[in-house]
Design brief:
10 helices, globular, 6-stranded mixed β-sheet, alpha/beta, 2-enoyl-CoA Hydratase, Chain A, domain 1, 4-stranded mixed β-sheet
Length: 249
């Protein structure tokens, strides 16, 4: 579900779970393991995360698979996903999301956890549509979004559940750069290579200073917020909306 290539000092992780890269426990665990390996590899100084096609970066949670899980099994997945997001958000090396396709819901959050986001021009959409599914935005993603785009934009994004095209994403601050599709990966690799060439210990400290307040807030309330998400996921309202979403999946 994950392919790895190394370009000089840059590790490129591509999500390869079909066209949509729908997020399930297996994908979460595989991405977590690869991040742990790269964390310990001194020769890889930065990473790029991308999809393997120009349709989807990641569509979000694999609803058809996850809706069948018991509360206990779903919570195993959900906690693993949230820990992955925190691992990526606090990763002690530069991280770039190369977005060549739609980044939706849980897939959008993975991109937000990176230090930079470079997206293809054209109709490539990002957004958090959880409200339309009857569930809250996962708490780590909600907190990270607010740091990136500010409270006003975050309110609009999370309340409406809308998807936004690349130029609007740039205007709102959800992405850092919009480039032609064929340049997304090369631009991301060049950015990662440059950041990885900087003094590493200083970078780690600067990044920690940037994220530490948000990370502490997430950790303080995460258990409580996970229980709240679980309650919503299994509510009658969400079940109805999730079943409708499966028809379009």
């Amino acid at each position: 579900m994950i392919s790895i290539e190394v370009f000089e000092t840059v590790g490129v992780l591509k999500l390869t779970r079909g066209i949509t890269n729908a997020i399930n426990l297996e994908l979460v665990n595989e991405l977590t393991r690869n991040l742990q390996k790269i964390r310990q590899d001194p020769d890889i100084r930065s990473i790029v995360i991308s999809g393997s096609n120009d349709k989807f970066f990641a569509i979000g949670f694999d609803i058809p698979e996850l809706i069948k899980l018991s509360p206990e099994d779903f919570m195993v997945f959900y906690r693993s996903y949230n820990r992955l997001c925190l691992d990526l958000f606090s990763f002690p090396k530069p991280t770039i999301a190369a977005i060549t396709g739609h980044a939706i819901a849980g897939g959008c959050i993975l991109a937000l956890c990176c230090d930079y986001r470079i997206i293809s021009e054209g109709r490539k959409l990002m957004g958090l549509n959880e409200i339309k599914l009857g569930v809250p935005v996962p708490y780590p993603g909600d907190c990270i979004l607010r740091q990136i785009v500010g409270a006003r934009n975050a309110q609009e994004i999370t309340y409406t559940g809308d998807f936004y095209p690349s130029e609007k994403l740039l205007q709102m601050g959800m992405v850092n750069k919009v480039v032609p599709l064929e340049l997304v990966q090369s631009e991301a690799i060049e950015k990662a290579k440059f950041l990885g060439s900087l003094p590493q210990e200083a970078f780690v400290t600067i990044k920690h200073n940037r994220i530490e307040i948000v990370e502490a807030q997430i950790l303080k309330y995460l258990t409580e917020k996970e229980q709240s998400f679980l309650k919503h996921w299994f509510s009658a309202e969400a079940r109805k909306q999730l079943e409708e979403a499966i028809k379009k999946f």
